[in-house]
Every structure is written in structure tokens, then in C-alpha cells.
């Protein structure tokens, strides 16, 4: 009995996918719940597992095909893998008759006699090109030399130029300047690759954000001295107790929640002519993957302690790099944090993740000379950037948000004391 393999429900607002890769071949045995193929949507790559043990009998949708929810991908049959092909039955072999021996070649005629028997056209070709008839293989009747034999010989022999006295060595001409390659030559050096569905979706959403939102970016800088000191003091005991490293991201998540609670417009979104204020804090954390940037969401981040935030971010980051994120883990964030500093970025203007109204960009920590209490000191500094939708967030709110984040990072006790 054949069992159909179909495209599962892909998630809210996702109606089609691309067959990225078949993990099994026709005839392969498959265990129950074993992955059969990978589907790529505009948000995630997901596996389609076998709902029963059996054999992959047929592949209907080949790799690269676009398929809709419920479409037939292939069929699974009961039983083990396809039997190996039977060797062909041996049949009594007929004894091969020995091939008749080739007739002995006729003895070559003397050169003068050969020349006399040539046709006028062949003789003229021989004489004009100073050839010997005996050097040319004859294919005509009774071993005669034909005009085609002579022409074939002329085409196959290396061209010989008459010897000439060697001229006096002349000065080498100056090398000609390289001619720029034309469009046709450049096209041969190009490679055209189809965008993945995820990359297409990223492009659409980023362009949508620029076309829809009245986007503006404001900057500030933060002194990381105290945060680095706190982290260095407690990182070992923190990891020993919680089984996870203490990073910077948990501090920034907590600092942003403190600022979002004070400035609810930054945690809101526009829907038509309404403003929807979110009284919960689902923080998206941008993660780079081989397929592109994705933003998994830390749910109810305000209810997690530092260890909870670090564990959740670590688990989501691993799933993102492995292509194992679910649609639920990518949907519904209220605010996003993107850390370009891990790639060495010193400053940038991040793009809003719609329908959110703001995104915080973190950057590289770099030592710079700063004036502290009237003296110049070397301090580890980081630039912060807040891109926001000016339709809903005023400049005053954006600047105040960054100032609150700055205060929490420069004095981490504020986060614990909620001040």
C-alpha cells in the first residue's frame, strides 16, 4: 500500500515552499519519523519526516520545485528497500568463429611504375607539392592512389616553411597595453545563482520597512567599563551555577526592557489607523546564519533572569545555525536587538523588523580616549544606534530610550534595583 508524502502546514501566512534537498533516494528504506527531505520557506528550513516505516517508492517533486501546502511530494510503500537487480541469466555462449585473416597486402610497385599509373589530377598534386606517392596511403580500387588520398595527406602533415637565412635580431616591440575585457568576456566570468526563498523574503521585508515606515536613526555611546568589571567578577561562578556563560546580550536585553517599560511607544506597532501597545516583552535577537539573517524571539524576556535569557539565546542561536527554528520561534517579537559588533562593525543604521517600530543596534567595543572628571582616560566604548518609526515614536522618546539603556549598561546595578 502506497502512502502519500505531502507538504505539511507551514505556519501562519506561509502557503508555499521550495524543495531544498531530498535526504533519501528512491528504493531507500525509511524508519518511522526519519527525515525524508528538507523544505525551504521564506522564514525557515524544515524537515518532512516519514509517518510510517517503509521504502521511498517515488519522488514527485524534485529538488528546486515550488510546492504548496498539501501538495504531493512523493510516495512511501510498505516493506524494506527495493531488491537489488537480478544478474542476467547466463546463456550458453556460442563459440565465436575466428575472424578471417586479412588478405596480405599487395607488394608495393616500384616508384616509377606507381607514378606512371597515377591519374593526371593525382600526378599534378604529387608533382606540385613535391611528394612521393609511396609515402601516401592509397584507398582506391586495387590499391590506387586517389585525389582525396593526396589532399588528406596534405591536410594532416605539418606545414613546412622554406628555410631562410636567419635575420639579424631585431629590438623587441614594446608590449601593447592590455585591452579591457568587453561585456561578453565579463559575462563568462560571472556566476548566476537563484536567491533562496529565505533571502528573497529578507529582501522583501527590508524593502517593505523602508517603503512603509518613516525610519530615522539616533545614536549614543556607552562606556562598557563597569559592565566588563561585573562580568569578569562573576562569569566563573555564574557559569558554574547555571551551566551557561555570562555574555553581554543578557545585560542589553534587560536594559532594553527597563527602557521599554518607561517608553511603551517603542514597544508598540501601527495597524491601520490604530496604535497597538504591547504589554509584554518578546525580544527578537538577530542571528546570522549561512542562509541569511533570522530573528528568533525570546518570549516574556522580562520574566526571565540573566541565566534564562542567556540559555534561551544560546538555544535559539544553535537552532538557527542548524536550520531547525520553528515558525513559532520566529514570529511575534515586539522589539529587536542586533549585534553587528560580533562581525567588527563600529557603527551602522539597522533596519526595522516589521511590524515592530524600533530596533537597537549594538557594535564593537573599542578603546578610545574619553574625558572623565576633567582627565583623559582610555575607556572601552560602544556606539549604540536606535532605528525607529517616526510615525509612532518621537525624537524625544527615541533619545530618552537610548539614554536609559546607556545608564543601565554603565551602572548595571540599576537593572537589579529597577531604577
TrEMBL record:
It holds the Pfam family 2-oxoacid_dh. Its cofactor is (R)-lipoate. Its EC number is 2.3.1.61. Residues 79-117, 159-193 are annotated as: Disordered. Binds 1 lipoyl cofactor covalently. Pathway: Amino-acid degradation; L-lysine degradation via saccharopine pathway; glutaryl-CoA from L-lysine: step 6/6. Residues 164-180 have a biased composition (Pro residues). Residues 2-77 form the Lipoyl-binding domain. One of its GO terms (molecular function) is dihydrolipoyllysine-residue succinyltransferase activity. It catalyses: N(6)-[(R)-dihydrolipoyl]-L-lysyl-[protein] + succinyl-CoA = N(6)-[(R)-S(8)-succinyldihydrolipoyl]-L-lysyl-[protein] + CoA. SUPFAM superfamilies: CoA-dependent acyltransferases, Peripheral subunit-binding domain of 2-oxo acid dehydrogenase complex, Single hybrid motif. Residues 117-154 form the Peripheral subunit-binding (PSBD) domain. InterPro entries: 2-oxoA_DH_lipoyl-BS, 2-oxoacid_dehydrogenase, 2-oxoacid_DH_actylTfrase, Biotin_lipoyl, CAT-like_dom_sf, E3-bd_dom_sf, PSBD, Single_hybrid_motif. Keywords: Acyltransferase, Lipoyl, Transferase, Tricarboxylic acid cycle. Belongs to the 2-oxoacid dehydrogenase family. NCBIfam families: PRK05704.1 (NF004309), sucB (TIGR01347). E2 component of the 2-oxoglutarate dehydrogenase (OGDH) complex which catalyzes the second step in the conversion of 2-oxoglutarate to succinyl-CoA and CO(2). This is Dihydrolipoyllysine-residue succinyltransferase component of 2-oxoglutarate dehydrogenase complex. It comes from Skermanella cutis. The gene is odhB.
Amino acid at each position: 500500500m502506497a502512502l502519500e508524502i505531502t507538504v505539511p502546514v507551514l505556519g501562519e501566512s506561509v502557503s508555499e515552499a521550495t524543495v531544498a534537498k531530498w535526504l533519501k533516494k528512491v528504493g531507500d528504506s525509511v524508519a518511522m519519523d526519519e527525515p525524508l527531505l528538507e523544505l525551504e520557506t521564506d522564514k525557515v528550513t524544515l524537515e518532512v519526516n516519514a509517518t510510517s516505516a517503509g521504502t521511498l517508492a517515488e519522488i514527485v517533486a524534485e529538488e528546486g520545485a515550488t510546492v504548496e501546502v498539501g501538495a504531493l511530494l512523493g510516495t512511501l510503500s510498505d516493506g524494506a528497500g527495493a531488491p537489488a537487480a537480478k544478474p542476467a541469466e547466463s546463456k550458453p555462449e556460442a563459440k565465436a568463429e575466428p575472424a578471417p585473416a586479412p588478405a596480405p597486402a599487395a607488394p608495393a610497385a616500384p616508384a616509377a611504375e606507381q607514378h606512371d599509373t597515377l591519374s593526371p589530377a593525382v600526378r599534378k598534386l604529387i608533382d606540385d607539392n613535391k611528394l612521393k606517392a609511396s609515402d601516401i596511403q592509397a584507398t582506391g580500387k586495387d590499391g590506387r592512389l586517389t585525389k582525396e588520398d593526396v589532399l588528406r595527406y596534405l591536410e594532416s602533415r605539418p606545414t613546412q616553411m622554406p628555410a631562410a637565412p636567419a635575420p639579424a635580431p631585431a629590438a623587441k616591440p614594446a608590449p601593447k597595453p592590455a585591452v579591457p575585457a568587453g561585456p561578453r568576456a565579463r559575462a563568462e566570468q560571472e556566476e548566476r545563482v537563484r536567491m533562496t526563498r529565505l533571502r528573497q523574503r529578507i529582501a522583501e521585508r527590508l524593502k517593505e520597512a523602508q517603503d512603509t515606515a518613516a525610519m530615522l536613526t539616533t545614536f549614543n555611546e556607552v562606556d562598557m567599563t563597569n559592565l566588563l568589571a561585573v562580568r569578569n567578577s562573576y562569569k566563573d561562578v555564574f557559569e558554574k551555577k547555571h551551566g551557561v556563560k555570562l555574555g553581554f546580550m543578557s545585560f542589553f536585553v534587560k536594559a532594553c526592557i527597563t527602557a521599554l517599560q518607561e517608553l511603551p511607544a517603542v514597544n508598540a506597532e501601527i495597524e491601520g489607523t490604530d496604535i497597538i501597545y504591547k504589554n509584554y516583552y518578546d525580544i527578537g535577537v538577530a542571528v546570522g546564519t549561512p542562509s541569511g539573517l533570522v530573528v528568533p524571539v525570546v518570549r516574556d524576556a522580562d520574566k526571565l533572569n540573566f541565566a534564562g535569557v542567556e540559555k534561551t539565546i544560546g538555544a535559539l542561536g544553535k537552532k538557527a545555525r542548524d536550520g531547525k527554528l520553528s515558525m513559532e520561534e520566529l514570529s511575534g517579537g515586539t522589539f529587536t536587538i542586533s549585534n553587528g559588533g560580533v562581525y567588527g562593525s563600529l557603527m551602522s543604521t539597522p533596519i526595522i523588523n516589521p511590524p515592530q517600530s524600533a530596533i537597537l543596534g549594538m557594535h564593537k567595543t573599542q578603546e578610545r580616549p574619553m574625558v572623565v572628571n576633567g582627565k583623559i582616560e582610555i575607556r572601552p566604548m560602544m556606539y549604540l544606534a536606535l532605528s525607529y518609526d517616526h510615525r509612532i515614536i518621537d525624537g524625544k522618546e527615541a533619545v530618552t530610550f537610548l539614554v536609559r539603556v546607556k545608564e543601565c549598561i554603565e551602572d548595571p546595578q540599576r537593572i537589579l534595583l529597577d531604577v
